[in-house]
Amino acid sequence: MSVTTRAAIDEFLALKRIAIVGVSRSPAHFSRMVYKEFAQRGYDVVAVNREGGELDGRPIPHSLSQVSPPVEGAVVMSPPDVAASVADDCRRAGVSKLWVYRTKSSCGAMVEGECPLMWLKDPAWYHNLHRGLRGVFGRLP
Question: What are the helix (H) ranges across the chain?
Fold first, then answer.
């Protein structure tokens, strides 16, 4: 895994228009929570899923190449075994600022292996607790 820095996290979170790639069609899936939390904090969020569909009345594009206007960055929520290839697809679509939630091997993203909800402004108490415990054990970027 790459060594994620706090500066990289802050740089990513300063973006305004992002995609959540790998958003599940299941409303209870964690990727949907990530989508919702970014949207509630004022980000212009685009859901992307290779199967397409609809979310909150908006069509879900199959890939980042279908997103217009383009996004500034992408959070990759795809399963770990395909995250690196999804990150490559993002780069081919011109999106280089990537946050990869889970991956089996480093894929050169600016943020890898970090829960995005832990780093958003005013996280829920349990995300704050998670972050605090990681800090106590010296495991924060």
Answer: 6-13, 30-40, 80-92, 116-119, 125-136
The stretches in the chain having pLDDT less than 50 are 1
**CATH T-level fold of 6-116:** Rossmann fold (3.40.50)
What was the pLDDT predicted at 1? Answer: 44
- Backbone φ, ψ for residue 110 (5° rounding): -70, -30
Query: What DSSP state is assigned to residue 64?
Result: G
pTM of the model: 0.92
Q: What is the pLDDT of residue 107?
A: 84
Which residues on adjacent β-strands are paired with residue 48?
21
**Lookup: tokens for 11:** 């740089």
- For residue 127, count other CB atoms closer than 10 A to its CB: 17
Domain parsing of the chain, residue ranges: 6-116
